[in-house]
Amino acid sequence: IFEKIFGKEDLLYANSLTNLGALYYIVSNYEKAEPLYLEAKTIREKVLGKDHPDYARILQNLALLNTEIGNYEKAEPFFLEAKDILEKTLGNEHPDYAQSLNNLADLYQKLRLYEKAEPLFIKAISIREKKLGQEHPDYAVSLNNLAALYLDMGKYEKAEPLVLKAKSIWAKIFSEDH
Known about the structure:
82% of the residues lie in helices and 0% in strands. The protein is an all-alpha fold. It has helices at residues 2-6, 11-26, 30-48, 53-68, 72-90, 95-110, 114-132, 137-153, 156-174. It is elongated. The protein starts with a helix and ends with a helix. The protein contains nine helices and no strands. The longest helix has 19 residues, at 30-48.
């Protein structure tokens, strides 16, 4: 309907592509998701330009998709570009920027580039603590992510307090039966 009414260069059409791509991503139909994300990226770039948070978000989607299928080399440039755009447009204290750091750090952890992942996870924790507070679930996720990195690195003594703190936050927010 959006294509018919507004055309293929409209943001509503691009949003529909993104949403359908997200559906395919969630059900692990990555071959159908990627072309939809790529078309949405092209539209957003043309309509919004490359320095817009919505353009960065479609880059994140493409990066996450490529990470999921193990195409890490293709994912990294998408993550890096999205991070740079979000930092420039939203600032380096915004929760969306923190999410971009978290995503990039996760990729580096998968690549066993621990020295590149650790400062990104730490910065994401700092931003989320400052902007969202110590009782926010995203803060707990960041703590847990850094703990997982430390587990991979064999730094168990650094991982334990982070996991315990994340567990405590989740128990307080969701209850222990969640």
